[in-house]
Amino acid sequence: MAIERTFSMIKPDATKRNLTGKITAKLEEAGLRVIASKRVWMSRAQAEGFYAVHKDRPFFGELVETMTAGPTVVQVLEGENAILKNREVMGATNPANAAEGTIRKEFALSIGENSAHGSDAPETAAQEIAYWFSGVELVG
Ligand code: GDP
Ligand code: MG
Predict the structure, then answer these.
(1) How many CB atoms neighbour CB 66 within 10 A?
(2) In this predicted model, what pLDDT tens digit does every residue of 31-76 receive, in sequence order?
(3) 112 CB under 6 A from ligand 1?
(4) Start and end of every Nucleoside diphosphate kinase-like domain (predicted)?
């Protein structure tokens, strides 16, 4: 398996509860390396653009509110099979369905305030990395 890069985000519900270190530790313990990281308080326009794929879903308004309610930490992770590995460590979207030991099982408050984001495929990983970072910010 080739080395991959993926985009990860620690959501406002988690930064508010000071969980940035604990969430990052779980990703690092799984073998993923943080090659870029910054704290961003998203504007409404940034949140709407980032989640544009969900714009027709009934939860879109709530999603934008939740993502602009406080700072996030946006990260690029690198490692073997990084996209799938990040999704595994993160756990199911709804914390009620998330496996033991996952970020969302341990830290999420609800399906809306579910603490973390991870890209779901190589194309979305590339798009999401480029949405938040320029090439010189990625230090592998
Ligand atoms: P993810 O890839 O596991 O984050 O899930 P999705 O791409 O399907 O959805 C993006 C984000 O929208 C999720 O992480 C949730 O924060 C939010 N979301 C998804 N489904 C719902 C829902 O039914 N209700 C609410 N309030 N938020 C949702
Ligand atoms: Mg998704």
Answers:
(1) 18
(2) 999 999 999 999 999 999 999 999 999 999 999 999 999 999 999 9
(3) yes
(4) 3-140
- Would you say residue 94 has pLDDT above 90? yes
Question: For 76, phi and psi rounded to 5 degrees?
Answer: -115, 130
Question: Please, what sign has the CA dihedral across residues 54, 55, 60, 65?
Answer: positive
Q: Which ligand is nearest to the CA of 92?
A: 1
Structure tokens at 9: 């985000």
- Which ligand gives the minimal distance to the CA of 11? 1
DSSP string spanning 61-75? HHHHHHHTSS-EEEE
Q: Model-level pTM? A: 0.98
Q: Is 43 in the pocket of ligand 1 (CB under 6 A)?
A: no
